Amino acid sequence: MDVLRLTLRQLQIFVAVANTGSTTAASEAIALSQSATSSAVNELERMLSLRLFDRSGKRLLLNDNGRALLPRALAMLDAAAGIEQMAQEAGDQLQSLRIGASTTLGNYVLPGLLARFLRPQPPRAAGAWRSRVVIGNTAAICDAVAAFDLDVGLIEGPSHQSSLAVTPWLKDDMVVVAASDSPLARRSAAGERIPLRDLREEVWLLREPGSGTRESTDQALLPHLNTYRRCIELGSSEAIKHAAAEGLGVGCLSTWAVQEALDAGRLCKLVTALPRLLRQCHLVVHRDKQPTAALQAFVGHLLSDAAAA
User: Which residues are 132's β-sheet partners?
Assistant: First the structure.
């Protein structure tokens, strides 16, 4: 077997410089002196006989070689972290599981899923649970899984990352809602189907670009509305829900997100000329991820829970 000269520490330093864009910032991130960080980058390039960065003053920017190396370096570092955890029992590994969820799933679906997953665990395993849960929009969760910062992502929209393995999961009904005392709500309650021409004149309350909810609503609504003539972008489904309840406009949101407000009478589900709006949610993991027993158990739970729904 050939002797390997490349070290994990060199790859860790390379990734830090790639992420921060300078040896100074990278040295602070990995607790190493700036000169040692710079020397490590130079030694890595010399060893590989490849330039990995373009130099622009004090900035180091990944070139084509560096961009090709980065995903491989991330995969190796993630696998090395997994090796360090191999001595742990599967129950102990639960504490290292890193879960990401897009906003609607994270706020309304994931808590129940985690409760059902942990409830059957033996007390020792359940007591060891120290996992990190990250909630963000779909694009941010996919980016984190692609960078090996998360072990698994639960997303509402499609993934556009070729490095991720995507598995269809839950299906989610999207509904158009308005304040319960709005003219549209009164017309809908009287049995009228709101026509498209009226919907085109409404103020639409939308999530920000990059959100799975925004991508799903764009795909579902724009073929029928053509454009949003008037709209307000808000950073969460909660904000849209409260804005709609105050009469600022209409929103298209997950049933999971609005069910409580519908039951309380703050919002009304509009009957419209739009077709049924159904979106597919997905699980994403990195294609090069080495699954732990805990990750396999959690993904298995997600799929079986969806099948039983």
Answer: 98
Residue keyed to tokens 């961009």:
67
pLDDT for residue 78: 83
Contacts of 62 (CB under 8 A, 6+ apart): 18, 52, 53, 54, 70
C-alpha torsion 303→235→108→279, nearest 10: -40
Give the CA angle between residues 40, 10, 151 to the nearest 5°. Answer: 145
281 near 156, Cβ under 8 Å? yes
Q: For the chain, first and last CA: distance in Å? A: 51
CB 252, CB 277: distance < 8 Å: yes
Q: Residue 137: enclosing H or E segment and its boundaries?
A: none
Q: Which residues of the chain have pLDDT under 70?
A: 1-4, 85-95, 121-130, 309
Contact between 249 and 204 under an 8 Å Cβ cutoff? The reply is yes
Please give the backbone phi and psi of residue 40, each rounded to the nearest 5 degrees, phi first: -65, -40
**298's tokens:** 């959690």
Instruction: Give the Cα-Cα-Cα angle 293, 299, 300 (nearest 5 degrees).
Output: 85
Say what the pLDDT of residue 86 is: 60
Pairing mode of beta strands 132-136, 98-102: parallel
Locus of tokens 């939308």: 206
Residue 3 has a pLDDT of: 60
CA-based nearest residue to 133, from 122, 146, 144, 120: 144
